[in-house]
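Can you give me the bound-state structure? Components:
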Amino acid sequence: MEPRPTAVRAPIQLRIADDIRIQIERGELAPGSSLPTLAEICEQWSCSMNSARGAINILKAQGLITAGRGKAPTVRIQPRRVIRSSERHQLEKDLALKPEEERARLGEAETNMNMSIDHQRFSSHYSQVPATEEFATIFGVEPGETLLRREWEATDPKTHVRLSWSVSHMPLALVSGNPAVLDERNEPWPGGTLHQLLTVGIEIMTVVDEVTARMPTTVEAQVWDLPDGVPLIFCRRISSDAAGRVIEVSDADYPADRTQLKFVTPLKPWPEHHPTPMGHN
Amino acid sequence: MEPRPTAVRAPIQLRIADDIRIQIERGELAPGSSLPTLAEICEQWSCSMNSARGAINILKAQGLITAGRGKAPTVRIQPRRVIRSSERHQLEKDLALKPEEERARLGEAETNMNMSIDHQRFSSHYSQVPATEEFATIFGVEPGETLLRREWEATDPKTHVRLSWSVSHMPLALVSGNPAVLDERNEPWPGGTLHQLLTVGIEIMTVVDEVTARMPTTVEAQVWDLPDGVPLIFCRRISSDAAGRVIEVSDADYPADRTQLKFVTPLKPWPEHHPTPMGHN
DNA sequence: GAGTGGTCTAGACCACTGT
DNA sequence: CAGTGGTCTAGACCACTCC
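Here's the bound-state model for the whole set.
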């Protein structure tokens, strides 16, 4: 209805959001600094308050800014990403052979490598559940067969914010030979699993990690204290023995803004006298 | 000090969004089926149009529904996730020793395993760029040293939608012994890298994948044709030789709703006579 | 053409942040 | 206290889908 710059046909929200995003990417708006207030945006782009809000919402959904009541939105400061390496799988296996006191010491310390034990509250919950279709297929058992379900969570004692979370399933029949496995008071951290399997004569030989990501639900965003626009990384770890039999399936969530998953793949060397196409080497 | 705002005082948008989300999770709203129209939401929850819109926007941001003009929003149908396995690293290394015609056949076929070559247009772009601080640190060279930058993209010929994308960096000095490496017309797909390295006497022995996720920007959402609420998975692959020298750094993006990354970790066996804590086995 | 969601405006009240 | 963003309402126009 009013003077149209006739520049483009893109919605005004998108134009504003893109303009600001470019300023952020160029460093003209440094992380931590404040964005223009809604009133200023209204004036600069000559639009209504709600359109300015729309632009802010787009940037929030892209994870670029944080906004709260009473103060101007700020360019998000990206937290350091904690590295979780697949080398941990081998470390945990090695640890399983160690005497109990060493397992307790290293195991707990390793559970969350970048935070002191004092600053997290650890809880676990064991239960027995019937196998869903999905798990039955993975384990190669009948649907409905009893699985041992073990859930672990670490939270910040002060803020009650979730720091780590995982749930593990394994066929109960595999571990029923050692009743201690069923008691969550024995080695109540995920790292103790391989030792407990050792007690029933099971050795994990292959670990497969399946990784993907999705947006959190409202409740997930709450318990993890996730800002807008931060995905959850979902990782399913499938452990098998030498015969290829699936022993354990472990599901874990990781907040993408604080997590980097690292996977190390050693390659087999080429045969000693391999072809050297151009005469090199 | 109540970390849960509970439903009592929660904004209407959130209450509506949660109610609908629960219906989706319970299966009362099947994937593909239509949600109530905005007018119906207004009436059922006795709120205004814009509040109903707000609820719809929340569900879109969580990736649960898709909405478009002219028809009611529908529960999102999750596409099948294409599996990209780390076993591919070894396959590519093996392939590098094969004769040229076999490389061409298998290499291209492998580039995108789940789609015929006829249904994707492949393009590559090679250039030489100075090393940023970040890359200089990774490669252990001086900032500003010349890197060979190679970018690959596959798009759908019909829709122009991006199907895959990656960019690779390596110190130019490492490969300058073979000028053919600099020509994008030679083996113009990522899988050919290890063969080209073979021609200059370099053998990759370790691959490290670093994985995280983030929300796409507006343009990224466009080129990938990403619906709202779908994260991008970001994967950096660092390839090193036997001496631990970093040879290549490859960055790739994957749409999280269509991608599952798979990493296989073989474990070293326990020593033959390991302790058997409880006398088993 | 009727119905729908996408965008936009104008204006109101509330919760929270600063001074 | 003033300023700010979060939420909400009422109403308008437009683009698109379906009949």
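A couple of observations. Confidence is low (pLDDT under 50) at residues 1-7 of chain A. Chain A has two domains: 12-75, 82-262.
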